[in-house]
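Trying the structure run again after the queue cleared.
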Amino acid sequence: MVNRNKILSDLSKFAVDAMSTFSGVKEEIETIVSLRVNKVIKKMNLVKKDEFDVLKKQVDKLMASNGKVMKSRKKAKKSAIVGKSNKKKAKKR
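Done. Tokens:
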């Protein structure tokens, strides 16, 4: 019995030591993977999310402004065309 209890105690200690070792290995692997991913991202010259969001807002603002300018140009162009056709009609009379 004493022999079995000692074996179980030793196995328990072994399991606890193995778990702590595995958690340390897991943290080390996560750190290495994180560093390598960051290195690859830097090599790819990618943009950070916050920088992207700022640029996206600027582009959206410019697109809205551009849309307003294009609409006003179309209206001005239509009114110029209508004005020319009214002048032609007036000359014919």
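The chain has two domains: 1-46, 47-93. Worth checking whether this holds up in the mutant runs.
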